[in-house]
Fold this sequence. Notes:
Layout: E1 22-23, H1 32-48, H2 55-63, H3 74-84, E2 88-92, H4 98-106, E3 109-113, H5 130-141, H6 144-161, H7 166-178, E4 181-184, E5 187-190, H8 193-196, H9 199-207, E6 212-215, H10 218-222, E7 234-238, H11 241-247, H12 253-260, E8 276-278
Parallel strand pairs: 2-3, 4-7, 6-7
Antiparallel strand pairs: 1-2, 4-5, 6-8
Helix pairs in contact: 2-5, 4-6, 6-7, 6-11
The site of cobalt (II) ion has 7 residues, from α5 and α8.
Amino acid sequence: MSKRIKYLQTDRGDLPMYAEGIVEQDWDSYTEADHAVWKQLFERQSALLPGRACDEFMTGLEDLKLGPDQIPKFSEANKVLRAKTGWELVAVEGLLPDLRFFELLSAKQFPVTWWIREPEQIDYISEPDLFHDFFGHVPLLANPVFGDYLQAYGAGGVKAAGLDALSFLARLYWYTVEFGLIQTEQGLRIYGAGIVSSKGESLYSLESAAPNRIGFDLQRLMRTRYRIDTYQQSYFVIDSFKQLFDATEPDFTGYYAALQAQTPLAAGEIAPGDTIVQRGSGEGWVLVGDV
Ligand code: PHE
Ligand code: CO
């Protein structure tokens, strides 16, 4: 699809009239082929996720009344989100500068890429598209505790940018918002957007013997490097979104100072003091796209 740069006037009085980086979704410009890509991915993931994704995610999918037939309209999703949690979606061309991204989150605005991948990219795309951003991230924005966490994350990001600590916060986003697992009474479940939007990683994250699954520990997690070219070598497991919210409530300034003095851990490493939910075999760490 062609690239567009069109700036949109927002209807929120508390924000600048022309918000940098925000474009129109221009829903009428989607082709039949675009809707067909959504349908194929939507049907595949919604068949896979019951019993694998956490209840909060599945409830969000229902609340948003998402279905296979057409690419969702951000304006429709916004009616549901505003009423449930006060979040809203804004359309963007692609990844934003860090500070801009954090500012949006702290204002409860979630940037969603407006374009969808091409049919040849069904199994793997190297940058976020509408399917990842919408299907992966938006359902949990309907959850109040997760929504509050993400807003606090945004505010924390603005602060961390001034403390030269963005790499630590990026790891937190990666291992929670993108690749988090959650322990439930029914068993281990997925909540990370990067997992729920990927067929291969939805299976691998729960069922492969290769990766480590480690109990969530904020400072340990922020010490851990990540790789963007493989499925994860370690997943961090929370007990609840409340645990995540509470653990991230304190001021991180002191944590950053301590972290800056430590050497990072490799993505697949086990450290003393880890709560091991499941130790990975390390065998068959899989390249992304190699489903
Ligand atoms: N409490 C954090 C801080 O002081 C803010 C934050 C909240 C960061 C949630 C990340 C996630 O920086
Ligand atoms: Co994402």
